[in-house]
Design a protein that fits this description.
12 helices, alpha/beta, Glutathione S-transferase Yfyf (Class Pi), Chain A, domain 2, six-stranded antiparallel sheet, six-stranded mixed sheet, Rossmann fold, 15 strands
Length: about 375
């Protein structure tokens, strides 16, 4: 297994972070500081460099730019250990552009810096909306399977055109709709097959990790709730024909993978309806760690794990179990906390690196 880790980061004009280099260790990096001092900004800077977007909602360039910025531009510089080779990634972000460089040369692709961002507060959105659960699966499955990401974009294009026909924005004809539905059904079947396989692969990790960290007394699993099956393309074809009048009245497509949902089952019951908020957060965190393990199995290396203040959402015995799990893990973790007891437990793990943030000033300890 090849290591993948970020060795250092330097930013200029990004939020309140000052321009000194930040150095990271290969295992656990404990980022300390009082709330509001800039701990999470370090995680966000790495996320923006890797994905070109923030994990914070409704955030764009004006929010990124430091109030003391002399120019309307933000500079990111990083050094990455990429399968045993040191690679530099840098970027310049302006209100209208994002320029990325690899080893000083323009780079059109995304950096090979796969991330998993873990924030227990995201659990509420995940459980409250089926669209958020679909988005989570699409994002994470797309990281593992590029063909899935390609087929998803193709499906979205077909769905958009089909809805345009139903809305009357395109000249409607039954023949045109039937012709489009041939491809629509074919791509839908491919997506459903990929989703079913993903759930089969991640569920054993999900259940094991939930038991290791949170409770050995419960069973958790994942289930795809869909009107169609990857092994029965005729069913979707029949549904589209049977519901053509309904689709025309509604002016959108009422059946297909865009209507799928994902159930997180807790002892066989839907955790949305039958679990406490605490149990939901534990299930959600277990799902994220399960994805990290599956990523390693499929890709051959672990992603970099960004964790934002998870200790505040867990009782002491559970975050102690979490620390033990992180200590055994072979992935690089950057974890923020203002919890002194949690910090003390992390520091007991050999190789833990401490980073202190005070009003944007970062000190490697």
């Amino acid at each position: 297994m090849f290591p993948l880790e970020i060795l250092s980061l330097r930013v200029r004009n990004f939020r309140n972070l000052l321009g000194m280099p930040i150095e990271f260790g290969p295992k656990i990096n404990c980022i300390l500081g009082e709330n509001g001092n800039g701990k999470t900004n370090i995680l966000e800077a790495i996320h923006v460099l890797s994905t070109r977007r923030s994990f914070r909602k409704k955030t764009s360039f004006p929010q990124f730019l430091s109030v003391d910025g002399e120019k309307p531009e933000i500079i990111f510089s990083s050094l990455v250990n990429e399968r045993g080779e040191k690679v530099s990634y840098s970027a310049k972000l302006t209100p209208s552009s994002f320029e990325l460089f690899q080893n000083g040369k323009p780079f059109k692709k995304k950096p090979k810096l796969p991330l998993v961002f873990i924030n227990p507060f995201d659990a509420s959105n995940f459980y409250s909306k089926a669209s958020e659960r679909r988005r989570w699966v699409d994002l994470h499955l797309g990281q593992l399977d590029r063909e899935y990401a390609t087929n998803l974009r193709r499906y979205q294009t077909l769905l958009k055109f089909r809805n345009a026909l139903l809305e009357g924005r395109q000249k409607y004809s039954k023949e045109q709709l039937r012709a489009l539905d041939i491809d629509f059904v074919k791509v839908s079947q491919i997506l459903t097959f990929s989703r079913e396989r993903f759930l089969r692969e991640i569920t054993p990790y999900y259940d094991r990790i939930f038991k290791d960290i949170f409770s050995k007394n419960h069973n958790v699993s994942l289930h795809l709730e869909t009107k169609i099956s990857s092994g029965d393309p005729e069913k979707l074809k029949s549904l589209l024909v049977e519901n053509s009048a309904k689709d025309l009245r509604a002016k959108f497509t009422t059946y297909g993978p865009h209507k799928d949902d994902y159930l997180l089952l807790f002892d066989g019951l839907d955790s949305v309806d039958f679990c406490s908020l605490g149990q939901q957060k534990m299930s959600y965190l277990s799902l994220l760690f399960a994805y990290i393990e599956l990523f390693r199995y499929k890709i051959g290396s672990f992603p970099i794990v960004l964790m934002d203040d998870v200790s505040g959402e867990l009782d002491k015995s559970r975050w102690e179990n979490l620390v033990q799990y992180l200590g055994k893990g072979k992935f690089q973790t950057l974890i923020t906390t203002a919890n002194e007891a949690f910090k003390d437990e992390l520091e007991k793990i050999e190789g833990t690196k401490k980073i202190v943030v005070t009003s944007g000033l970062v000190k490697n300890v």
